[in-house]
Amino acid sequence: DYLRLPGMDVDALVRQLTQPQDIAARDENAERPVAPELAPALALLQDGALEQACAAAEAQFGSDDPAVQADALRICALACSGLERWQDACYHWQALLDYEPTAHNALQVATTSVMAGATAQGVEWIEQAAALNLRSRELPMLQVWIGFVTALGRTGQERAALPYLEKIRQVYAELGTTDATVLYAQRIPFFGAFLDN
């Protein structure tokens, strides 16, 4: 916020510098346009018509194109999460893992499992998400633990979150500072937010 240079987009620079470098597999899908047959479902999702978005996407589950099937599952997973139909969301995220075995998708399975009341299954999935992320480095590891702690907190399972809060605490301890500028630059939540948890 304090660095303003003419002709420079500081936010874009920070995003570029903090993005993991070895995520080529994920980037293949990032630029892929939405298939025309899924455009109506995506528009409904973006407009907040979640039930209709899910129904429109489900119609594409039988597509011959695996990319269309994967995107249809993603739309359904997002719509079901928005509707708080956690078991359905978990099913769709888990099915999406068959197409895209990423740490992000495994994290979604873990958090939706917890939200659906299947905490033991969520714990298994968060460990898989962490293992996938160690290999791919697609997410900041802190994001994996924070996402899981958030889901546990939302379901009133604060005691189950303690081991993961300890992992988060270790990140701060290894960094050796709680300076807000350093934390912001490394995309780590401010220390006060950690203490609140």
Kindly describe this structure:
This protein has 197 residues and is mainly α. 71% of the residues lie in helices and 0% in strands. The longest helix has 18 residues, at 119-136. The two termini are 26 Å apart. Residues 21-29 have low confidence and may be disordered.
Keywords, separated by commas or semicolons:
single chain; 197 residues; mainly alpha; 12 helices; 71% helix; 0% strand
Sum this structure up briefly.
By secondary structure, this protein is mainly α. It is 71% helix and 0% strand.
Alpha-carbon distance between the termini? 26 Å
Fraction of residues in helices?
Answer: over 70%
- Counting DSSP E segments of at least 2 residues, the number of strands comes to 0
Instruction: Supply Rg.
Output: 18 Å
Main sheet specs: none
Average of per-residue pLDDT values: 85
Shape annotation:
globular
Strand content: under 5%
Low-confidence stretches: 21-29
Number of helical stretches of at least 4 residues: 12
Structural class: mainly alpha
Order of helices and strands: HHHHHHHHHHHH
Any chance you could write out the topology, listing elements then pairs?
Elements: H1 10-18, H2 24-30, H3 39-47, H4 50-58, H5 66-82, H6 86-99, H7 103-115, H8 119-136, H9 141-154, H10 158-175, H11 180-185, H12 191-196
